Amino acid sequence: MSDSYFDEGGPFHLKRSGPDEITMRLPVDRDSTGMIARECTDNDCAPGYFKVKPGTGITSEQETAYCPYCRRSASPSDFLTAAQLQYAKDAVFSEVAVAFDRAIQQGLGLGPSGKKSYGNTVSLSYKPGGRPHVARPVEEELRRDICCPHCTLEHAVFGLATWCPDCGGDVFHVHLDAELEVIRKILAAVETRRETLGSRVAGRDVENALEDTVSVFEAVLKTIAKRQLILAGKTVEEADGFLEKTVRSQFQSPRAAADIWSKQLGLELFSGVPAEQIAALTDTFEKRHPITHNLGIVDRKYLQKAASGGLVGRDVRVSAGEVEAAIVVVSDALLKLYARLFKADKT
Fold first, then answer.
1. CA 161, CA 175: separation in Å to the nearest integer?
2. In the chain, where does DSSP find H-type helix?
3. pTM flag (> 0.90)
4. For 276-301, what is each residue's pLDDT tens digit?
5. SS3 of residue 39 by DSSP
6. Concatenated DSSP letters of 45-105
7. pLDDT tens digits, one per residue of 31-61
8. Cα separation of 321 and 315, whole Å?
9. Do strands 65-66 and 73-74 pair parallel, antiparallel, or not at all (unpaired)?
10. What backbone torsions phi and psi does residue 6 show, to the nearest 5 degrees?
11. What CA dihedral angle connects 130, 131, 132 and 133, to 10 degrees?
12. What sign results for the dihedral spanned by CA atoms 172, 173, 174, 178?
């Protein structure tokens, strides 16, 4: 490119692609698991941030990709993150800055030294500003890795998502199973922890597993309720308002959650789930109150709701078996509810 202010090659692989056109290729680093960050094209989508692993999923020509949270579709190249866009802008500015310096030097007729003399009394010099530093994009770490059962795309998301970024298929059950499997692994290690670290640490592991199970139940119900409300014609703001003002934290209780679903959403939450399992789930979930708010000590508020009894001032008793049974009921109830609501919705 002797007649150009730009040099071919370099860190951004510059290449002349036309008489007045220069192309650049910017390498984007993968994380430690080989994934590349992506972001929803809708600025209002929350959380909107996810990652995909190139070489998995749809490996042929792909025209459309999807947001795993809201299923907004666009060209795969449109799902750049804010950090990647800034990286691209900085790279362009870096190359333009160098070209600008070169244009000035050539325009003024300056030599390699950047100086030019006019007789014995007048001289002209120009000092280039140098190439601006271009920082690689720093992306967030995500802890929830998922493999799509439809197209085998390996991807990572924040919290609970519903859609595969590649094929757009419904992967709700995979996300739910993954969340519950983490809790199952914690419970499976309880006896080993008891032997190596003592009964109190093992007991706290079981208590934490219960809290996580309640959190999954609550979060999934909110996700399902929001989607159902939007499908019924509510705006996103109206659906969020219902969850914040009406539901609040009531989805932490099977009894309160069932009441809201019946009266507010017109559906039986535990349809098809045996009554004795619902009762056992409710009893187990009630133990979360003293665990979370009273260091695991039974108080009168807990006794007013609990079916299993106990003595004020004593430790609440919850076993790994109880939590494992609760996980089974939670999975069964949520999957059945989801199937009833969205079985005809293939997208």
1. 7
2. 82-107, 172-188, 190-197, 199-231, 236-242, 254-264, 275-286, 288-293, 300-305, 320-342
3. no
4. 999 999 999 988 877 765 545 545 55
5. strand
6. -SS-EEEE-TTSS--S----EE-TTT--EE-GGG---HHHHHHHHHHHHHHHHHHHHHHHH
7. 888 999 999 999 888 889 999 999 999 988 8
8. 17
9. antiparallel
10. -105, 145
11. -120
12. positive
Question: Between vectors from CA 228 to CA 226 and to CA 229, what angle results, nearest 5°?
Answer: 65
Mean pLDDT of 68-78: 94
Instruction: Return d(Cα 345, Cα 122) in angstroms, integer.
Output: 79
Per-residue tokens: 295:
């260091």
Give the bridge partners for 115, in sequence order.
125
AA letter at 307? A
User: Could you give the dihedral angle defined by the CA atoms of residues 152, 153, 156 and 158, in that order, rounded to the nearest 10 degrees?
Assistant: -90
328 beta partners:
none
Read off the tokens for 174: 């995979």
* Model confidence at 153: pLDDT above 90: yes
Region 317-333: what's the mean pLDDT?
95
Better pLDDT: 197 or 142: 197
Query: How many C-alpha atoms does 338 have within 13 Å on its Cβ side?
Result: 21
Cα 244 to Cα 226: distance, rounded to the nearest angstrom: 11
Distances in Å between the alpha carbon of 4 and those of 96, 105, 318? 12, 13, 74
Which residues, listed in sequence order, are joined to residue 15 by a DSSP beta bridge?
Answer: 23
Can you tell me whether residue 343 is helix, strand or coil? Answer: coil
Structure-block tokens of residue 70: 């809201």
Cis, peptide link before residue 68, omega less than 30° from 0: no
Of the candidates 262, 239, 238, 260, the one whose C-alpha atom is nearest the C-alpha of residue 249 is 260
